[in-house]
Amino acid sequence: MLWPGPENYRFCPLCGGRLENRLLKAGEPERLVCTACGFVFYIDPKLAVLALVPYKGGLVMARRAIEPGYGLWVAPGGFVDVGELVEDAVVRETLEEVNLRVRVIDNGFGIPEKYIDKIFERFFRVKDEKTRYITGTGLGLPIVKGLVDSLGGIIEVTSAVGEGSTFTVLLPLQPG
Ligand SMILES: [Zn+2]
What we know:
Layout (H helix, E strand, L loop, with lengths): L18 E4 L8 E4 L5 E2 L6 E3 L3 E2 L2 E2 L2 E2 L9 E2 L2 E3 L6 H13 L41 H11 L3 E7 L3 E7 L6
Antiparallel strand pairs: 1-2, 2-3, 4-9, 5-6, 7-8, 10-11
The structure holds zinc ion.
Zinc ion (ZN) binds next to loops.
């Protein structure tokens, strides 16, 4: 079954009045507006989460049992519910899909601001007194960046030394 897209919505969810397409602001797409109460039905893109769970040198993957993408391997993830925290959504989806209870924690050292632009370069590693004994290749983030780039997305990072880092990945619904 094809899910009925927003273009098929006909009635206002508030008052039941008829919706019609109106150009509210030049440069933006037309919006569905209620002809009775004026409610603007913004069709917001859904926020989704993806868990990259390290396991035995690889990542935990799940095989899709439903369309779209039936049979394809994906990292556990899914849509964030209304009002749900992103961190809670990724924990819930990972439990639902691969039966693993994960935690989203960054108790890392944080990344000094002068290195922020370098962390996506291959083999780059922040080396100081605290991190020198941690082994690693400096390839993890460049691989993630490469994946995000290939999907036409963006990755952002904020970090505070001594507190930790937050990585945000934004992906378009249609690659490219
Ligand atoms: Zn209405």
